[in-house]
Amino acid sequence: MTIIPRQARRHWLVAAVCAAALLPAGASAQALRIGLAEDPDVLDPHQARTFVGRIVFNALCDKLVDLTPELKFVPRLATSWEWGTDGKSLTFKLRDGVKFHDGEPFNAEAVKYNIERAKTLPESRRKSEITSIASVEVVDALTARIVLTQADVTVLAQLSDRAGMMLSPKAAQAAGANYGARPVCSGPYRFVERVQNDRIVIERFADHWNKAAYAFDKVTYLPIPDSTVRLANLRSGDIDMIERLEATDVKTAKADANLKTASAVGLGYQALNINLANGDKAKTPLGQDKRVRQALELSIDRDALNQVVFEGQFTAGNQFFPPNNPFSDKSLKIQPRDVTKAKALLKEAGVNGPLSVEVTMANNPRSLATMQVIQSMAAEAGFAVKLKATEFATMLAEGTKGDFQANQYGWSGRPDPDGNIHAFVTCKGNLNDWKYCNPEIDKLLDEARTLSDPAERKKRYDAAQAILSKDLPVMVLYHESWIWGLRKKVDGFVPHPDGMIRLDGLKFAS
Amino acid sequence: MLAYAARRVLVAIPTIILVSIFVFVLQKLLPGDPILVLAGEERDPVVIELLREKYRLNDPLPVQYFAWAWQALQGNLGISLRTNVPVLQLIAEKLPVTLQLAAMAMTFALLIGIPAGIMAAVKKGTAWDYAATGIALWGLSIPNFFLGVMLIFLVSVQLQWLPASGYVPLSESVSQNLRTMIMPAFVLGNALAASMMRHTRSAMLGVLKQDYVRTARAKGLLEPRVVLRHALRNALVPVVTIGTLLFGELLAGAVLTEQIFTIPGFGKLIVDAVFNRDYAVVQGVVLCTAIGYIGLNLVADLLYFVLNPRLRVR
Questions:
Q1: Model confidence band, residue A23 (pLDDT cutoffs 50, 70, 90)
Q2: How far off is chain B from A88, nearest CA to CA, in Å?
Q3: pTM value?
């Protein structure tokens, strides 16, 4: 044995550590690293509530149906489906030979178990999405019939997201509410590990029914909340793609020769919501007189807002459905800014002198900038807008209590039109914090839920939006776009309006 | 000394109880309802009621506190409202990360602060002194988050030497771990190095005027030996004590640094927990930090006890 003197040994060790520290990170060609804007919550599709969680589920858990960029529903675990003649049942033919990550088979029994779990698990956040499902019948091993309490066409859309994701019944039964610690589904990737606030690692599932479409052996999701740092990581090559690139950073990303961007107009909207009847704070001219709300709307130049705050990357809007949604009403045009008319309306409503309006918004640069632009635009028409920035959690609490005159926030959006409008403007809607109540709207929107003919549905939505655009409980301002930043070598990414990252077809250019 | 330590530990117990009550009440005073955040975008009233029951949020505050304290005494700090992970497990996962960051930052601070302090004292009034003092002023004034982002742009984006952010556990790869931790540790240690330099400088200036230093020089000792062997030893006593106390400050600074560099440590844990009103996590982390702080103070006191013989005669 050679004896190394202590001194020399120490030098050697120091040199080795330094050398090791300076070696570049070894990157495997088969591994993809994705930067997320937040850390997901529980990794249980039935309990989860965050947007980023859904991005991870898209790789882990297959759902019954999927959504195309054109918002059409396409087969995933279900190969076809058929509505019952009365619209009160929906029968799914299921894909044969599908296995869960634990080797258990996927079949109609599994569908029944999953939907029942989503409906009954005390911690389930899916209950309100599938209230109309009465039961699930197992017709045969590969046919499941969903029986509804009433006709409800929105169910299919619900089953294209978390409520339609299939968990291994065996694993879910064993883990109960703790399933999220180690999710077992049937998606193209299986769960490896999670370090909270740091990473979620998944690996390719060798027995997936469509495994050839997935190029990466391993995918790591890294939550990096600071948008500047997220972009810096992409630019330095430490990660391969990021979601929610800031609109104001698109220019920087485009100027970088190693990067490219992709975008899709999202499903949701951002709005100014006005308290009409929720407590004392509703008792303002703005809450009580729709002419005042119309005047406020006329004072806003939505295109200028989009240009100034978002460098034109988003889409100005005045409807509950973005323009890429087939249910958007092409004839309901955005009114151009008209300060003179706004002033006249205010005068008609008996408002003399600047009208003080307090707007609550989340304390983030985006909402702040949006409201500052609106503040200065509205000032010209005779509104003295006072801005009150709070944390999101506080704003929500104040919203439900009615402790606001107006607030600015949005909705992430759903593929089915019902999910974007019903809960916000029907008298008993869960999310109707402003307590807008109009029986005619309730009738139109309740009916639209039950109709299977899209043309008939659209008529109801158009009629409802025509009324809402005059009553203005919710003043839609713009539709966000999902913007992704990618290294040039990442090929095959298809942007979807739901903001998800689908890994099929994604690969590194050779 | 043992009796002294035991006495100090006993005194610490009411402090910890008070801290836990204080944090508990303070959290409940925060506006915002955790259940509204937890219920998801749809805010289903059925889910909201179930969650309130589950987390006992309908109980009066004292009942909630005692329920928590009773569990805490049995070593159960509850589970995270957001992710269902036990709080104790989260703490065990995150604490080592922050401790490593703090230890590395402290190493940076010592390596930069002490030599710079010595130099500034020895070369008092020269350009060296002014340069060191100027740099220290810069170090104290530049905010963590600014320095962090600037370094990321220079070192990671432009030069591509180090990863911009993220974390690799020591157990997985020592080299990768160091690559991810060097920049944050430097950023965190930067301000500390500056105050360390100031303390070393003033302590050294005091010591260098002492008679025994003059005697050492009169003996004909070489200047480096006078400074490093004779003066520095005595000047270090207050610096060591201050260093121990500043370690607590490092934990506070780690909150920002971890946020910038996306290091999954204590700081990031508590920021996320506060924003999500994840009561159990905030409570557990603060309790743990309070115990750590008190522990560090105890260590500093005991260290002083060891270093200063006069304290022992009482």
A1: very low
A2: 23
A3: 0.84
| A176 close to B (CB below 8 A) | no
**What is the phi/psi pair of residue A91, to 5°?**
-105, 125
Alpha-helix runs per DSSP H in A385-494: 392-401, 418-425, 439-450, 454-471
Residue A337 pLDDT level (bands cut at 50, 70, 90)? very high
Cα separation, A24 vs B231, in Å, equals: 43
Q: A126 vs chain B: nearest CA distance in angstroms?
A: 9
pLDDT band for position B313 (cuts 50, 70, 90): low
Contact at CB, A122 and B54, closer than 8 angstroms: yes
A42 CB neighbours in chain B (<8 A) are 82-84
Q: Does B50 touch chain A (CB under 8 A)?
A: yes
Cβ-contact B97, B266 below 8 angstroms: yes
* B7-36 residues touching A, CB cutoff 8 A: 30-34, 36
Q: A419 to chain B nearest CA, in Å? A: 9
Span B82-124, pLDDT tens digits: 888 899 999 998 889 998 999 999 999 989 888 999 889 888 8
Contact A225 B262 (CB under 8 A): yes
Q: Is A398's CB within 8 Å of B31's CB?
A: yes
Please determine, for residue A379, whether its predicted confidence score (pLDDT) is greater than 60: yes
A246-265 burial by CB neighbour count: b if 16+ within 10 A, else e?
Answer: bbebbeebeebeebbbebbb
Sheet holding A89-94, edge to edge: A78-83, A89-94, A143-148, A133-140
Distances in Å between the alpha carbon of B222 and those of B86, B118, B124, B226? 60, 16, 18, 6
ipTM for the complex? 0.76
Rounded (10°) CA dihedral A329, A334, A335, A337? 170
